[in-house]
Design brief:
325 residues; alpha/beta; Metallo-beta-lactamase, Chain A; 2 domains; seven-stranded mixed beta sheet; five-stranded mixed beta sheet; 8 helices; 15 strands; 29% helix
C-alpha cells in the first residue's frame, strides 16, 4: 500500500481565495497530512482568523498573506479543533485572542509538542510553543467582523474529534467546516466517531444550507461535498460490520478491502484508523475521548490511537506516513 498519493514531491504554494466580500479562504495544497486550510475575515479595524497552520514556516507565510490583503491586525483566532495542523501555529498570532471549545484547549495540552517519528516522515516544525485557546466556550460564541456575524458552534457530538466547531456566516451562506469535511483527502476519525460524524453532517451541517464550504483540507466546495464525505463514512461502517463479523482485525479488514471510488483520495491508510474507530463503536456504548485512549463504555471497546497509527504504518508497507508539511 502507499501513503498520500502525490503527483509531485513538493505541493503547489498556498493560495488565497476571496470566497465572499471581505472573507478569504487560505488553501494549502495538497491538503494531506498536516497541511490544512485556514481562512480569515477582514474588517475595518481587525481580522478574525479561522485556525492556524502546522509549522512555523507555514503559519508565517499565512500571516504574510493576511498582511498583503489588509493592514489590520489579527485580533481574534478561532481554533476549530485541537489537532496540531490547525493549532501549532497559534503562538505566532501575537496579541490575538485565541478562541476555542474548552475541550480544544484540553486536547492541545494533552497532545503536546509536535513530533514526526515514528508515524510520519520528518517535518521541520520550527520553534513551536503550545498556545491553547484562552477564551473557551461549551456550546458556542458569536463573533462580529464589522457588521458581519460569525457563529462559532460546537457540533455537539464526537465527529472528527470530540471538540469540533464550525464557523458559520449565515448572511453569506458560507461555512468553515474544519475537519468535518475533507475535499480530495480521506476523512480521519480515530479521535472522534464515525457514527457521530454521520449524525453531525446530516443533522447539523446539511440543514444550514451552506452554498460555499471551506473544508479543513482541499479545495473550496459546494454542498455536494457533504454527500461525498457521508458516502465514505457509510463505506467505513459497512466494512467494519463485514470485517468484524468475519473475525478480522481492522488492519486485516483494510488489507482485504477494495477502496473502490475512494482509492484516489489522499492518505488512504487512514482507512485503518477509521476502522479501529468503527470497530469500537460496534462494541456499543457512548462515544468518549480520554486523551490518547478513546474508551467506548458499554461494550468495552477501546481505541488506542498510537496502536491505530502503528497499524496505519503497517498498512503503508512499514514506512512512515508521507508528510510534506
Amino acid at each position: 500500500m502507499s501513503s498520500a498519493r502525490h503527483d509531485v514531491a513538493t505541493p503547489e504554494p498556498p493560495r488565497v481565495e476571496e470566497v465572499s466580500d471581505g472573507v478569504f479562504a487560505y488553501i494549502q495544497p495538497d491538503g494531506s497530512w498536516w497541511i490544512n486550510n485556514t481562512g480569515f475575515l477582514a474588517g475595518r479595524r481587525g481580522v478574525i482568523s479561522v485556525d492556524a497552520c502546522s509549522t512555523a514556516r507555514r503559519t508565517r507565510a499565512y500571516l504574510d498573506t493576511i498582511a498583503k490583503v489588509t493592514p489590520q491586525p489579527v485580533r481574534t483566532l478561532i481554533n476549530t479543533h485541537h489537532h496540531g495542523d490547525h493549532t501549532f501555529g497559534n503562538h505566532l498570532f501575537a496579541g490575538a485572542t485565541i478562541v476555542g471549545h474548552e475541550a480544544t484547549r484540553t486536547g492541545i495540552l494533552e497532545w503536546g509538542e509536535p513530533r514526526s517519528a515514528p508515524h510520519w516522515t520528518d517535518v521541520e516544525w520550527g520553534d513551536v510553543v503550545l498556545e491553547p485557546p484562552f477564551l473557551t466556550y461549551t456550546d458556542g460564541v458569536t463573533l462580529w467582523c464589522d457588521e458581519l456575524r460569525a457563529e462559532v458552534r460546537h457540533v455537539g457530538l464526537p465527529a472528527h474529534t470530540t471538540n469540533d466547531s464550525i464557523v458559520w456566516l449565515p448572511e453569506r451562506k458560507l461555512l468553515f467546516s474544519g475537519d468535518l469535511l475533507f475535499n480530495g483527502g480521506t476523512p480521519f476519525l480515530v479521535q472522534g466517531s464515525v457514527a457521530g460524524a454521520i449524525q453531525v453532517l446530516e443533522e447539523v451541517v446539511r440543514p444550514l444550507g451552506a452554498e460555499t464550504i471551506v473544508p479543513g483540507h482541499g479545495a473550496v466546495s459546494g454542498p455536494g461535498l457533504i454527500d461525498d464525505v457521508l458516502g465514505y463514512l457509510r463505506f467505513v461502517q459497512d466494512a467494519a460490520l463485514d470485517g468484524r463479523a468475519a473475525g478480522l482485525t481492522p488492519l486485516e479488514t483494510a488489507r482485504e478491502l477494495d477502496l473502490g471510488p475512494y482509492s484516489d483520495l489522499l492518505d488512504p491508510e487512514r482507512i485503518v484508523g477509521n476502522l479501529h474507530r468503527a470497530y469500537a463503536e460496534l462494541a456499543g456504548g457512548e462515544r468518549v475521548d480520554v486523551g490518547f485512549v478513546d474508551v467506548e463504555p458499554g461494550g468495552g471497546g477501546r481505541v488506542d490511537v498510537a496502536a491505530a497509527l502503528d497499524d496505519m504504518v503497517a498498512y503503508n508497507g512499514g514506512h512512515p506516513l508521507t508528510c510534506l508539511a
